[in-house]
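Lab notebook: predicted structure, single chain.

Context: the supervisor wants predicted structures on file for every construct in the current expression panel, including those that have not yet been purified. This is the next one on the list. No modifications to the sequence; it matches the entry in the shared construct table.
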Amino acid sequence: MYDLPSEDPEEPGLPDEFHDLQPQLLSRTLHLSRYSRNNCFTASDLNLYYDVTHPLWQKRPDWFLVVGVPRLYEGKDSRRSYVVWQEGKFPYVIVEFLSPGTEAEDLGRFHSAATAVTSATLNGEPTKKTIPPGKLEVYERYLRVPHYIVYSRYTRRLRYFKLEGGSYHEQTVGEVAPAIWLDDLEIGLGIWQGEFEGLPDAWLRWCDREGNWLLTDTEQEQLGKEQERLEKERERAAKEQAQAQLLQTARNLLATGMEIEQVIAIARLSDEQVRALDAGDL
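Prediction complete. Output recorded below exactly as produced.
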């Protein structure tokens, strides 16, 4: 596995901070009911080797999910790349974030302004030289990824391609969350307008069937602390209310002329409290 390079010196860097943070948000809000976090693998900008006959051919998806594999390679080490013929599992979802210059590569034949380039053609002309296929062709023909999603933060356009009959067919995307529902994973995806890691933007984010945004680990921790604080506040308020009721009961009993010792026994208050009530100090 590690004899294949983990970096491509000819690959350009990330175009902006969004392209660094958006994959993190997808991974941190991913909660699958059928798979534990230790039984699925997510990655971004990681070399994905897809063809054993051309072992150096690779693509680097902006984000991808593989289910049914351990998070750690062989259960003990983080991956430096993902080699499908060694792992035995192909990606189940791939997401690409469009940036200037990547549209033709990411969209292939679905890009209206470009002719798809395949491994058999170059610049629209047949070629005898074997060249690596484009991303769409790899995801569709080589990896057969069931769900391919493309999002542009510049236009806020979300596109969803589903593998049907061996080829991708574009699906209708809703206007509200879940804009995309992946029934086999029981999870949805939508565009969330908010702030993540200090950056306000329109982000792709996982949600449930009702459109409720799934929380990051940090948000879950904050929610847990807030729920704990509210529970303590409810307990404190309940104790104060119970104490107030006991004091009022003691006042009423004293008003009837009942002896202090009897009031103490009935109200279960201290001697000091009842005597203070009797003296008008409480």
